[in-house]
Amino acid sequence: MAEVSAEARIAAPAEKVWARLTDFPSYGQWNSTHTGFPGGGPAALEIGADFTENMRLMGFPAEVAWTVCELEPARVFATRGKGPMGVSLGMRYALTPDGEATRVRVEGEFTGAAVSLMAGKLKDSASAALDESLRNLAALVS
């Protein structure tokens, strides 16, 4: 298993950060691993909603079938997914108001036999991608 996380203080209220975080057509503007949603984002943003995302991590393309597993508007957005080679993924965004700003914490988890072979490189690559994505998100909403 490989676990990664990143955190940033974004100079915008949680509702504004949430609006961008859940605006699926604009994912490519801030999410550095995202390359597309073949069928668009989820039809309705609700627990149990399914959607497919094309990503690039460690230079490799991957298609991930996501399911929304936790949702609390302007607070928490979490998904679980299945990727190539039997890899399971989890992503969780938690937003915490901090005065007029918002603390955003992202946690990712990768499990599966293929992960154990490249856990170190995967952690480094995913951590860098999360940091870059939070910087991009902050630039869009600040």
Write up this protein.
By secondary structure, the chain is of the alpha+beta class. The protein has a single domain (2-141), classed as START domain (Alpha-D-Glucose-1,6-Bisphosphate, Chain A, domain 4, 2-Layer Sandwich), CATH 3.30.530.20. 26% of the residues lie in helices and 44% in strands. The protein has two helices and seven strands, in the order βαββββββα. It has helices spanning 14-21, 113-141; strands spanning 2-10, 34-36, 50-57, 60-72, 76-82, 88-98, 101-111. The protein has a seven-stranded antiparallel β-sheet with strand order 1-7-6-5-4-3-2, covered by helices on one side. The radius of gyration is 14 Å and the shape is globular. The model has no long low-confidence stretch (mean pLDDT 94). InterPro entries: Polyketide_cyclase/dehydratase (IPR019587), START-like_dom_sf (IPR023393).
Q: Could you give a quick summary of the protein structure above?
A:
Pfam families: Polyketide_cyc2. By secondary structure, the protein is an alpha+beta fold.
What percent of residues are in strands? 35-45%
Number of helices: 2
Q: What count of domains describes the coordinates?
A: 1
Largest sheet: 7 strands, antiparallel
* CATH H-tier superfamily: START domain
Instruction: Tell me the structural class.
Output: alpha+beta
